[in-house]
Amino acid sequence: MATLTIPLSRIEGHARVVIAISNGQAVSAHFQATELRGFDRFVQGAPAEQVPSIASRICGVCSTAHHLAATKAIENIYGVAVPTKAVRIRELMMLGQVIQNQATSLFMFTMPDLPGQTGVPSLFHLDEVHSKIAPRALAVRRVGTALITLAGGQCIHPVRAVIGGVLGGITHAAAEEMRAQLAQALTRAQFLLDAYWALFEGLEDRIGTLGDDSPTYYMAAIEHGHAFYGEQLRLMAPDGTAVEPFAACDYAQYLTDVPIEGSYSDGTLYRGELLRANSLARINLDPHPSTPLALAYTDRFWAEWGYPAHAILLFDLARGIELVYALERARELLDEDLETGELRAAYTPGDGGGCGLVEAPRGPLIHHYRVERGLIQEARFVIPTQHNILAIERALLVAARRYISPKGIDLELERAVGRVVRAFDPCIACATH
Amino acid sequence: MPLSYAVLQLSGCSGCEVSLLNADVWTKEQTLAYMPLVLSIEDLPPVDLLLVSGAVNSEDDYDRLQQAVHRACRVVAVGTCAISGGVANLGTRESAQEVFLVDPARRHLPRLLPKLRPVDAIVPVDLYLPGCPPTPRLFEALLGQAPSFLPAKTVCQDCGRVKTRTRPDRLASTAGGAIDPEVCLINQGYLCIGSSTRGGCGAPCTRAGNACVGCRGPSNGFIARSANEWFTAIKRVFQNMTAIPDPEIDAALRSPALSLFVFQFADYTGMSRDPGKVL
After folding, report:
1. Chain segment A250-297, per-residue pLDDT in tens
2. In this structure, are residues B26 and B70 in contact, taking their beta carbons and an 8 Å threshold?
3. In the predicted model, what is the mean pLDDT of residues B78-93?
4. Which residues of chain A does B102 touch, with a Cβ-Cβ cutoff of 8 Å?
């Protein structure tokens, strides 16, 4: 049996794909994370109140999500009720996180795969026809980081969420200025998404597939009109029916870890079944978003691809719709007064266990801690990328079988592997932590 | 000729790379030759500047670093992990090793090194760009896009909060309480070490009301000195500006609450780094 190792780029972190071939047929495909730091080990002994700033360092791409999941977990242990305005400001942090991430993933990671016969090495290699894309994509992503900075104090490893609330409000003047930036970004995002959509259809014509389209479970911590802040975990079954939601702290009853061969990251099963998280899960679970432009795009999406959608490359387009949604939703939230009023509840530290949940760009993220005498005794991170790993491996096998035959290996294989992995936008720093 | 540069990512969080993406460096004056996060290219070509982020944590990190430095004229250690190991240096290595050892299916993975190392413990480094992460402005300065940029000596100078005659007599509790948006955090009783921490970041944390934990490392005056001298200097600031009893300051400075970054000061002082090489 021969194995084929394919390195990966334009994803967060270090990973590779290993395909085993026997008699001219792909027999297995593994997605292997090759890095490890060990956060669940070294946060042990840290003061509970320090965890929001330590755990954000799990990932610089998703640091806002970790910062807030950690904060919410400690609040869960202390039994603190966070004031509504502080929740709004945290929601703005999450929306900024989603704007930044979806713009990065869509334009810097996957868009270079689309043009021509082979794609291009990076966003900065697009041709003259598409020369307006890179500067606009960078500008849209920067509005996401500006929004995190406004609400979170710092765009990478934010500092403004503290146990009980947030450190400061958002002045009316700053909110107005941000609303103007978001309006401009929204125009640019529409231009970019339209350009992406056209190139995407070109790709489908060229390769004749949108990848693995077998149904799975879909999981997301969202409600209609949400801002990625996370209340409970909702699921859709492979046949499209809704499944009873569950609370963050009950995750162990539903989600099981599966070791992945040759990888520092485990995968996840939902009650023994394959599941998917990230943009396609969210759009399937909330098919008619609450903001007007995102709604128009989803109508077009369902008309073109059908509901619910299962083909994996549609994760990319769904991410573009979410970019528009997050820009619109952030403008709505900034209409409210976030300058005055209670932003931080007093609390009494205590011991015990608790969970914090947010809907990170890649899906539901849970931080679970046990605190004794004010120090972390035990930590567990339930990571969205892990929820997708078995789905990635199945999709890789579908692609490998398409391009590997007894006659030989089609040159398209390596590009297909890149497209499959990037569709799930995995984050290896998070997955291995 | 435009400046060509490469970004080699070892064990870290990609925060430095994300910060670089936020910087105004995507111009004709620089050519990005290698950065797997955003660019698909097989091998690292010869470059003027090699930016290394993340710590040397696995044998894979070690090999890639060794190979990459031969292709670069100058090597820059970027971010706290590359310079002092960063947050992953907090715990004992034995516990992380266990993760590797428990599962035989992991035998083909890059092995974790017995000790996590900063970049300059393995290869010579020409420049240091500390911060967790360094701000976009600092990347612009590094890549020649901010000729007028003069970093402040300390975070204090960047901060802009007003020092008052208020002398708190105990450290502020983290459990609630309003933070005055204008007044120095030390005057409000917070354990802020911005007075000894390298400036240039623009003080986003302290401006937002969060005490500085020192992610940019020591200011020039402290780089070549021992950690004890640094502790003494911070203590003196609190003696001058507060009425908090000495033992309380001592205990707080050595408490786990500051464990995230304080250790890197000790790392600096152990390595005798040249302040002239630190941006």
Report:
1. 999 999 999 988 899 999 999 999 999 999 999 999 999 999 999 999
2. no
3. 80
4. none
A46 touches chain B (CB under 8 A): yes
Task: Compute how many other C-beta atoms are within 10 angstroms of the C-beta atom of residue B19.
Answer: 27
How many distinct helices (H) and strands (E) make up chain A?
A: 13, 16
Residues of A in contact with B179 (CB under 8 A): 167-168
List helix spans (H) across A289-359.
Answer: 292-305, 314-333
Of B15, B208, B209, which is closest to A63 when you measure between CB atoms?
B15
Q: Do B208 and A63 touch (CB under 8 A)?
A: no
Question: What is the rounded CA–CA span in Å between residue A332 and residue A266?
Answer: 38
Question: B260 to chain A: which residues are within 8 Å by CB?
Answer: 50, 53-54
- Which residues of chain B lie closer than 8 angstroms to A162, CB-CB? 174, 210
CB atoms within 10 A of CB A228: 27
Q: How far apart are CA A166 and CA A153, in angstroms?
A: 10
Q: Which residue of B has its CA nearest to A108?
A: B38
Rounded CA separation B252/B259 (Å): 10
Residue B107 above 70 pLDDT?
Answer: no
Say what percent of chain B tops pLDDT 70: 86
Q: What DSSP state is assigned to residue A312?
A: T
CA separation for the pair A397, A212 (Å, rounded): 9
CA gap B258, A299 in Å, rounded: 51
pTM for the full predicted model: 0.96
Peptide bond into B133 cis (omega under 30): yes
Which residue, B85, B94, B96, is CA-closest to B61?
B85
Q: Which of B4, B11, B18 would you mutate first to test chain A, the one with the most A CBs within 10 A? A: B18
| Minimal C-alpha gap between A36 and chain B (Å) | 8
Residue A114 in 3-state DSSP?
A: coil
In this prediction, residue B267 has a pLDDT band, given cuts at 50, 70 and 90, of low
Looking up tokens 């909702």 gives A234
Contact B15 A42 (CB under 8 A): no
Q: Which pLDDT belongs to residue A396? A: 98
Residue A100, min C-alpha distance to chain B (Å):
10
Average pLDDT value for residue range B113-120: 87
Mean pLDDT of A358-374: 97
pLDDT of residue B110: 85
Chain segment B159-179, per-residue pLDDT in tens: 999 999 999 999 887 766 778
- Residue B260 near residue B222, CB atoms below 8 Å: no
Sequence-distant (≥ 6) Cβ neighbours of residue A131 within 8 angstroms = none
To 10 degrees, what angle do helices A63-78 and A133-152 make?
20
